[in-house]
Each structure stands twice: as C-alpha cells, then as structure tokens.
Amino acid sequence: MKLFVDNLTNVDFSYLHPHRGLLGESWLVQLVLDGRLNEQGMICDFGIVKKAVKAWMDKYIDHALLVPTGMPRLSHRQHDGETEVEWRYPDGRGFYCRSPEQAITLVGEPEITEHSLAGWCREQLLKLFPGEVEGLELAFVPERIDGAFYHYSHGLHQHEGNCQRIAHGHRSRIEIHLNDQRDEALEAVWAERLRDIYIGTRSHLVDSASGMHHYRYQAPQGEFELRLPADVCYLIDTESTVEQIAVHLAAEIKREHPDETVLVRAFEGVGKGAIATA
C-alpha cells in the first residue's frame, strides 16, 4: 500500500554548482510513503505527513545554501556556531561564504541535482514516521515554465525570517509587457542578463577590488559574509525583495524604452511575485 502527496510544498534555496557557481533554485516536493495499514486503516495521517516533511524541509533545505561536500576544489569548516565555505571556480576564481550554521546545509554528495538531493533527504525523512511506514520515495520537481526564467540568489538584511540569509535563491519566471502587449523577446534578453546572478544590495557591498564583490551584514540570526566574482553579481540600490526587483526592472526597461508603458511581473520562485509599472 502506498500513500502519495503531490506538491506537498516547494523549496527555495541556493547551492554550489561545480561549473556555474552559486545557483538559486525552486523545486516542488513530491512524496510517496510505502507501508502497512494501522488500526485506523491508514498508513499515516496526511496531516502528520505534511507537517513533518514541511518542517524538515524548512529547517534544512528551504532558504538555505546547500553545499555538496564531495565537489572538487571545496573546503568547509564549522566553529563557534558558524559555517565557512571556500571554493574555486574551474577558472580559479574564488568563492567564500560565512554564515550561522543554520543557513548552510552540508550535503554529503559530489553534486546537487534533483536526484542526488532526494536520495540524501530520503533516509533522514524516513526516521520521522511511525513503524507502519516502511519506505519513502521523494522527488524534487522543477516548475514547468513555458517562457523566460532565470536563477538568482540574494539575501535580505532587514528580514526577520530566513530570507535574511545571504545566499538563498529562486528559479523565477519573468513577464514584461510594453503598451499592454507581452514582449517575450525582451523577457529572454533580461533572463539572459540575470542568468545565474547574485542580486546584491549596494549598502551590503564592503569591497569591490580585484574583480570580486565582498558583501557583509549583521542580521538577527548572526553575521553573514559572501565573496564572489563581480561578473556574477547585479547591484541594486535597495533591499532585493521581489517588490524592489520588480520596481528596478520596470525602471530600467522604461529607461531603454522611454516611449513605452512598461509592466513587469517578477516572480519569486513558484506562483508568487510582484508587479511594477513605469
């Protein structure tokens, strides 16, 4: 007997890719439990399943930086409640992140993929359920997007929740309308400009020498620090909330198309976002 939960939740996070570097991602979570019926005629109550899995995902995956500890050119250490990660791009450029321990999840795999992460999570999740549950299948599924999208990472210094973490991210659609007509070609242009990007807030930038951006800020969870190549960063003057990203994009597109009425629908992961006009 099997129990399934489609689209149980979705997770927004960033991870280190062995070639692309810091990569924001958003995946839907699908779950199947295998087991025998209890005295109530159930494998496990749906409410218990959803609550337990979502709480675990919120703690270890959602809004975290996932680091595959088996990837090449990587070192990491944990001390005094903090985690530090250093890594080299294939061309030798550096990456460094220092965060409170809860903001970085060390994954014992050589690479983060939908399949490797699901396998890593599965054994730990199985321990959450009663004895009637004998097996667990987990799948991470990217949202199907017919059109332009981009991967971005960011950190919200002023946020009281987990969005304050300096390197979490999303895989997001973008829709652009000029004079009430959707412009898919322009969407593709902006998705390419923002491909695999870190959207940094100018006030968080403490140094930009030698082709590197160095960000640092103090937030309720602790001190956060990030260094990565300048050419994978995109600076804005405000906090990088999706509302401010939408406003910024609308203003930039208006500057390039001054005679047009501009509307931007900027997404933050799956099924949510902000609308701005200029």
What does this structure look like?
With 278 residues, the protein is of the alpha+beta class. It has helices at residues 46-60, 114-126, 184-193, 242-256, and strands at 2-17, 21-35, 65-68, 74-79, 82-88, 94-100, 104-107, 133-142, 149-154, 168-178, 181-182, 197-201, 205-207, 212-219, 222-229, 233-236, 262-267, 273-277. Strands 9, 10, 11, 12, 16, 17 and 18 form a 7-stranded mixed β-sheet that branches. Strands 4-5-6-15-14-13 form a 6-stranded antiparallel β-sheet, with no helix packed on it. A 5-stranded mixed β-sheet has the order 7-3-1-2-8. A hairpin with a 5-residue loop joins β5 and β6 (94-100).
In short:
By secondary structure, this protein is α+β, with helices and mostly antiparallel strands. It is built from four helices and 18 strands.
Low-confidence stretches: none
Mean pLDDT: 92
Total number of domains: 1
Terminal-residue CA separation: 55 Å
Radius of gyration: 20 Å
Largest sheet: 7 strands, mixed
DSSP strand tally: 18
Q: Give the percentage of residues in beta strands.
A: over 45%
Helix content: 10-25%
What oligomeric assembly is this protein in?
single chain
Helix and strand run: EEHEEEEEHEEEEHEEEEEHEE
Number of helices: 4
Family: Belongs to the PTPS family. QueD subfamily.
Pathway: Purine metabolism; 7-cyano-7-deazaguanine biosynthesis
GO molecular function: 6-carboxytetrahydropterin synthase activity
Pfam families: PTPS
